[in-house]
Amino acid sequence: MIDKIKKYLMGSVFRKGASILTFLTLGSYVLGLGRDILFARFFGASRSLDIYNAAFIIPDLLLNIFVAGALSAAFVPVFSHLLAKNEKEEAEKTATTMLFSAPIMMLVLSVPAFIFMPYLSSLVAPGFSGQEKSLLVLMSRLMLLSPIIFAASNTLGNILVSYEKFFAYGLSPIFYNLGIIAGIPLTYKFGLLGLVIGTLGGAMLHLLVRIVGTAESQLRLRFPIDIRSPNFKRVLKLMIPRMAGQPIEQITFFIFTNMASVLAAGSIAILSFARNFESVPVSIFGVSFATAIFPSLSRKAALGDTKGFLYHLKEAVKPLLIVSVASSLFFIFFGEFFIRIFFGGQRFTEADVLRTGKLLAFFALAIPAESFIHLLVRAFYALKDTLTPILISVPGLVLIAILAKVLIPTFSLNAMGLSYFIASTIEALVLFFILRIKLSKL
């Protein structure tokens, strides 16, 4: 039996990559759970934790608009295409140019964000008082260092994915969480700024792991960087549509944070805890499967092999369906139980447990749809179509905002989870039918 399982897992690049990423992502989320347990015990569902979570909004939004998902959507297909065509030197020139231009771009964008942070912070959390808002501004400004670090780290990560070197790619989030956890004891000396120090330290560890991983790959840096290169321009061209759609998730939780800031104190913290729990199976299975299959889909698309493209896509669908539905049911029925076990006690009261458990149940409804969105979107990217997912996700964002606003008077904080489930399900179904039509024409 063990031999059969091993043979299955090692039977394809997808299974091997998915297995590595699933295992490492699970490790990262175990640490993430430990981090959240410590947050709950040290801070409870408090305004202090609200401020820390809100401080991520603007830096993460900048990173995800201009680098994170946009770079992945554009870089991997172009880089994989060059490798598939045996244009290794040109691929390395493109990678080198992107590696140095991405953090420079984030540095330039961070300057106006730093200057206008008082205004931006008011948009993020209009319900905060004067002193709370001042601390949020300071922490958000310091956190602007993180997108600069992650711009370089994410570029290295996409190089690793293209080479199907999944170990260093998946290991880096573990070290990021270790850094955040290390920041908790620093709060005794530096207050909430200790969490910022830990977070930035974790970001540096994230980058260091990927530097080591890339050094062990086949990549050679080729200078000078050339922003006029046709392939670099091709990456930028593919990035532009994705820039419009990538921050959808960040904008969604920007909207949720804005709405939660005027509810009871601790609402943002509870929103973060529930979302972190719900995102575990989505990341372990949805993101891992999609990331592992992405290079194979990109190569098949580059070679015009539609049959091979469909084979690899179907290879991920059945196991993803099983684990995502099972995860959804698990959190619906047992989510509150585990919230109580892990978070309950000390400053995290029974009322906090009940509020978090109910919100998690609503968010859990979205697990299958959100997992499949990651897979479907990667299929479009492999076909070098970064526009279609945007045209679907933007109306979805509008729908989420409208639904949340309408449902809050009835469902209070739970309106966030319910609106997210409805919009995610519709988006997944629309993407599926459009991809099916698109593939039938190839």
From TrEMBL:
Key words of the record: Cell membrane, Cell shape, Membrane, Peptidoglycan synthesis, Transmembrane, Transmembrane helix
An MF annotation (GO) of this entry: lipid-linked peptidoglycan transporter activity
TM region(s), chain numbering: 56-83, 95-115, 135-154, 166-184, 190-212, 251-274, 280-298, 319-339, 359-377, 389-411, 417-435
The keyword DNA damage is annotated on this UniProt entry: no
Any single GO CC term annotated in Swiss-Prot or TrEMBL for this entry: plasma membrane
Domain of life: Bacteria
UniProt subcellular location: Cell membrane
Record protein name field: Integral membrane protein MviN
Organism: Candidatus Yanofskybacteria bacterium GW2011_GWA2_44_9
Native organism taxonomy: Bacteria, Candidatus Yanofskyibacteriota
